[in-house]
Amino acid sequence: MITLLKRLAAWTTRRRRDAELREELAQHRRWRTEALMSDGLPEEEARRQAAVSVGNVTKLREDARDVWGFPSIDSVAQDVRYGLRQLRRAPVFTAVAVGSLALAIGAGSAVFALSRAALFRPVAIFHPEQLLTLRWHATTSNPTDLFNGFNGSSSADGNNISGTSFSHVTLEHMAEQASPFADVGGFADLYRANLKTQGQSRLVKGEMVSGSYFPLLGVRPSIGRLLQPGDDTPASSAVVISYRLWKERFGSDPAAIGMPLQVNAVPFTVVGVTDPSFGGTLDVGDVADVFVPFGARDRIMRDEESWKDPNYWWVQILVRPRPGASEDALRARLETVLRRDIRAVRPVVTDAALPVLQLHPGAYGQPYTRESLREPLRIMVLAVCALLLIACANIAGLQVARAAAREREMAVRLAIGASRRRVARQVVVECLVLALLGGAAGLLVAQALARLLLPALNLGSEATLDLRIDWTVAAFTTVIAVASGVIFGLAPAWRASGANATIVGLGTLTSRGPTDAPRLRLGRVLLVAQIALSLALVFTATLFVQSLRRLQHVDTGFDTRNLLLIQANPVLNGYDEARALSYSRNGLDAIRKLTGVEHATITTHPLIANAGSISELRYKTPDGEEKQEQRVYRLSVADDFFETMRIPIRLGRRIDSRDANPGVRAAVINETLARRAFAGTSPLGQHFQFGSRPNAPVYEIVGVAADARYSGLRQEVPAVAYLALAENASPGSITFYVRTGQEPGRVARAIDEVMPRVDPSVPIFGMRTQEQQVAEYLSQDLFFARLGSVLGGVALLLACIGIYGLLSYSLARRTPELGVRLALGAAPSALTWLVLRESLVLAISGVVVGIPAAIAIAQAARSTLFEVRPGSPLALAAATAVLAGVALLAGYLPARRASRVDPLTALRAE
Amino acid sequence: MGKKTPRQELLPGTLDMLVLKTLSIGVMHGYGIAQHIRMVSGEVLHVEEGSLYPALQRLEVQGLVASEWGQSANNRRARYYRLTRAGRRALGDAESSFDRLIAAISRVMRPDQP
Fold it and tell me: Which of A18, A49, A728, B43 is most exposed, with the fewest beta carbons within 10 Å of its own?
């Protein structure tokens, strides 16, 4: 212990001690000299002998230094200082290395932060990993076997359907049945709610929750209280707001408790504010600002559904098992409850059609969204890995080339007594310093990069993700940085420790001979690896660009140019159907009067926006047989729709102003529907209904329209029925579509002014052009095409630098040989070809090695690509050509220098 | 680098013991210690500076000797070493184990002698 303290004390005074030791040794030498002189030696000789006997002062000092202090730390610190000095002396290399590392490591950290934010949301929930959510799976061609109405997320794959919504009675029964083993709570998405507080209206996201929701989650309030089981009645007017809303709208005023607040024109009173980091349990990227009790649902939503209807499935269910409870037993129990509830209202349902229940981790949003995020994240991880490896290979290659100049330095160090291990360690330390510098720079840009990469997740333009760079990201960055440092430090360190001290000496600096060939070979191997990875990236980029181009050229079936769309939701304001329709009419009239407007119409959904309404269509054949057509898209449209969208009519007539009167239920179907349901006969004059209720409205087909896209571009054209708007059963959200003469900008501003005059309490939102809407739909594809191009570009640049560096070095080495060739009569162009050939050989080897990697990355991206085969030979050929071009470009300068070699100077260097 | 004359290698730890013993006589500087050992051993033991100074540092860190700067005979600045109490104790231990060791070695080498 004392020794340790003494060592610490000695280490802190080491500089002084070193000076003292030097002085002591000098004194010793002087005494020795005097002694020798008194023995009769002349002064010069005495001095020399004294110096020789004292010996290797440097090593002595180092040995002495090793006794005090902490030699290992000391020497590492020395290595670090030395390494920094070396890096400062080669600014271009350092800049390229740190820059490419910062980009690669920063991108890696960004992807890590993104994945954490998207897949592992840290929320203010008590032990979120214990929470489970329920998902049902059924095999049936007819979803209405199970329910009449559905609200929430679902997926269908042929006859297999699944969803995460249940009926409210099922929630109650499950809570009862599960109670000894688990706690159960429910919530539902409020979508866009019109929040009015302190005179201002605004659209927010929100949730409807059961009384057991907050106790189940274990969230704490900031002030006031959260919703409790007592609020489960329709009479409750309690509402809880988010911390963010409290800060923005109420200025964090504690007097907000007790204030009135309207949600969709229904009055509530604020009873509490949630914990600052709680954003609800909606999907990834959605933050809920307001929480209302289930009982208020009917008042708020104002549709034809009832919250307690066992046939209406709208509640998402969360379960927290108690300690010791078996998940399997729980699952089976809840499944029994679900099936019993379905049977209670549908006695004729077959056993096979009954759904099975699955438990999923619950605190992280919809399982569908998480699944859809996996592939984009995987693609980005692969791309970042490739980029990192490329950067490492590049730096390693450059280091190896740099080692030529440092061989003398290494040899000298070996000569004065450094061990090989020490020399190698210094190189590794230098590489680690470089890597950590790159990592630090990468951490600085990680957050900005994460924001740039956000569109890859396709969460929509309103998504909010908590992309903060916290200690886990920093730790991850450090790990990658150290790993990279080790990777690109291995090669040069191994080479450095093999430096042979005797070859260098009094000779020339251009080392030739046996130590050289392995270095060149290593450099070549690294370069080939780098080119292979670059090929993979460039290939993938080409695929994404191809995919994007194909998507952009899909025929939408309607004219997307100069088309404005604006959304509004009068129902949120408390309007009933009639008043909402009259608002729509007035709005449409006002818009049509504006200059620059050629046509205008209303639809229930915007097009190419992943939105739509799908139902089952029932009709009778001329022989009286009842038939159904599944998965028919429906769109309610006002008059002038087909003129506004420029969709041609093939048969019969359009929907026009005569259909606005109640009583007449006109519909126009598209060619696909006509072909599917009414092949062989004329659909005109035939009737159909939507859904399974016998008293559903009956529509008459008055025309057949050309096929046009509805919710997206990737799928086939669906069967669509366009219905006259007056008969729309649930108006809700509407979209105004406006065809303008030229630039939509001026008309947009005019609409902005006129709509508040039509009705000041109905906010309009989402004003954009159809082209912008398509771009947003394609945002993920756009993003990947851009990302691929950027990464491909960076990879090509690094490959170019690497090839240039290696060729220059190789040329410098071969200058005497080239001189000999020239002297023997070779043409300069032959020399040029010699260098270029080396470059091409590298490129081709890289391409050959890289093809499997390229195809692997492309396979991983398979489902994101549109109509592009992962093994596309055209893309592969294009990528190869690009790489060959880059190789030629990089080799151009060295090749020219080769042709200019002067045989005399070349041979003189011999 | 000078040529190394083949020398008798000291048993490990012996140098430290020799230095401690030398200092038990009085306070000395490094050169003086080397001279003393050379003279008293009859020119058999030549302590190289490369071993002496690290040994002195080691002993100082272990707390067995202490050093301070002073004036030498001809008014030169020199560093003087002296034995500490712990050093005196350590010297005693080293001496007895050294005696034991030497006796054991001689028993092996000259088994006939008592």
Answer: B43
